[in-house]
């Protein structure tokens, strides 16, 4: 069902998909838990932090800024022990900071470093150096920040001459949790309150954790008001819930395979992230949520999904930020569903690790899908048969995993090139997939 050669992975259809998935920790929550606890006065232990390269980039940058972070890796569960710097403050790094492939690292640290009294330069890999940074630079400059980027302040590397900032009132022009969080991190050290308005809400992990750590933050409707820190943040130890963005591959696989039952344990179900569940249910997925509970201010649950008869759907509007990272695998579900699926209002997909409208459309078309790209989404004519062939991840982790799910239901062999890019968010993905593939 499955073989690996060099960087490529071959997937073949299998008679049955069954098993229990233990997820990696949520990437978005892990970044925030590491950054905010680095600023706190005292130590915190973060269990089950996301094991992928993105969160390791955040840890590497914070260490370079003087924070002591110890990590335990498997076979122990992923744990980070952080000694927060509190009133001592971060220190100027001796070299350029490297965020790798991680926009969350670059944007969140960009906001934080704009408010710190030293010089920082932050760069990333070729994909990250081509992602938009103007959306970060613009509001930070309104706060009085001095920062610059390549290409007339559009791209990284970023040069940041940190200084004391002023709080602002700002309406976010795009629903970006990274930009919102960057402004809040800058606002912690600013003079005066920071008030943010969002036309469409985005993931709220920063707000939840800041409140728990004693920051004076109020969320009302789609607005957030933060007062600057009067005392250092209080450290919070926590166990990070499983990543719903990683769960999505198995939820879709379970729903589209003709003989499947998959249980996903301890999955984060923060309502700002559960768009994929809402859409799968609306498409007719046999999906049930059990054992709902709260850990460290974040809701989580176990989810069971079984083979289903999906139908096409229209996806757009406010739900898009709640499932933006899951759209590549949702497109796979739409290929199998009966009828037409239209995805709109998702132009942000073009700004991700790859241009996900172009790459999803081109790679799924290779497998025989009937899919048209739109400026802000795609139209997928479902119900046709997929046929395996060679496809490319375009070095985009979410595309690699989405194509693997397509390969499970395609005829013949699907060879995914550059498949090891899953290291970015889900290093154990191929191993976990192998465990649920049953030969009979
Ligand atoms: C993230 C926010 C989203 C998401 C990304 C992680 C975060 O990006 O796509 O994978 O952790 O804040 P935007 O803020 O650009 O929408």
Give a written overview of the molecule:
With 440 residues, the chain is an alpha+beta fold. It folds into 2 domains: 2-25 and 241-438, UDP-n-acetylglucosamine1-carboxyvinyl-transferase, Chain; 27-238, Enolpyruvate transferase domain (UDP-n-acetylglucosamine1-carboxyvinyl-transferase, Chain, Alpha-beta prism), CATH 3.65.10. Helices cover 30% and strands 28% of the residues. The chain contains 13 helices and 25 strands. The strands form 6 sheets. A 5-stranded mixed β-sheet has the order 17-18-16-3-25. A 4-stranded mixed β-sheet has the order 1-2-24-23, with helices on one face. Strands 5-6-4-15 form a 4-stranded mixed β-sheet, covered by helices on one side. The longest helix has 13 residues, at 27-39. The chain is globular and about 60 Å long. The model has no long low-confidence stretch (mean pLDDT 97). Bound molecules: shikimate-3-phosphate. Shikimate-3-phosphate (S3P) binds next to helix 1 and helix 6.
């Amino acid at each position: 069902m499955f073989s690996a050669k060099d960087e490529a992975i071959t997937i073949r259809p299998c008679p049955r998909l069954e098993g229990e998935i233990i997820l990696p920790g949520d990437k978005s929550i892990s970044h925030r838990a590491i950054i905010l606890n680095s600023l706190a006065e005292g130590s915190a232990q973060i269990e089950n932090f996301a094991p992928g390269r993105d969160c390791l980039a955040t840890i590497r940058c914070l260490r370079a800024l003087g924070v002591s972070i110890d990590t335990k890796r498997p076979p122990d569960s992923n744990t980070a022990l952080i000694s927060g710097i509190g009133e001592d403050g971060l220190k100027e790094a001796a070299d350029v900071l490297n965020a790798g492939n991680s926009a969350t690292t670059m944007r969140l640290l960009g906001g934080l470093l704009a408010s710190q009294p030293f010089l920082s330069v932050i760069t990333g890999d070729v994909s990250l150096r081509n992602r938009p940074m103007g959306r970060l630079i613009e509001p930070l400059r309104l706060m009085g920040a001095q920062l610059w980027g390549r290409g007339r302040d559009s791209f990284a590397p970023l040069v940041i001459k940190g200084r004391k900032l002023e709080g602002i009132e700002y309406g976010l022009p795009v629903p970006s949790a990274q930009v919102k969080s960057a402004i809040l991190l800058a606002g912690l050290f600013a003079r005066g309150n920071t008030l943010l308005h969002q036309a469409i809400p985005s993931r709220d992990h920063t707000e939840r954790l800041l409140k728990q750590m004693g920051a004076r933050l109020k969320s009302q409707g789609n607005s957030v008001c933060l007062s600057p820190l009067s005392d250092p943040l209080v450290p919070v130890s926590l166990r990070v819930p499983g990543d719903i963005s990683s769960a999505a591959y198995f939820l879709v696989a379970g729903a589209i395979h003709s003989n499947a039952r998959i249980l996903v344990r301890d999955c984060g179900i923060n309502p700002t992230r559960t768009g994929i569940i809402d859409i799968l249910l609306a498409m007719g997925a046999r999906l049930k949520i059990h054992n709902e509970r709260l850990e460290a201010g974040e809701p989580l649950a176990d989810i069971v999904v079984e083979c289903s008869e999906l139908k096409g759907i229209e996806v757009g509007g406010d739900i898009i930020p709640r499932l933006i990272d899951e759209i590549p695998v949702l497109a796979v579900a739409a290929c199998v569903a009966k009828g037409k699926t239209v995805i709109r209002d998702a132009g942000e997909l073009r700004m991700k690790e790859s241009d996900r409208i172009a790459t999803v459309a081109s790679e799924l078309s290779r497998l025989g899908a009937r899919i048209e790209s739109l400026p802000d989404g795609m139209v997928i004519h479902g119900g046709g048969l997929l046929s395996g062939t060679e496809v490319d991840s375009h070095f985009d982790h979410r595309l690699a995993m989405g194509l693997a799910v397509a390969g499970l239901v395609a005829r013949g062999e699907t060879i995914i090139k550059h498949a090891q890019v899953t290291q970015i968010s889900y290093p154990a993905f191929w191993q976990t997939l192998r465990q649920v593939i049953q030969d009979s």
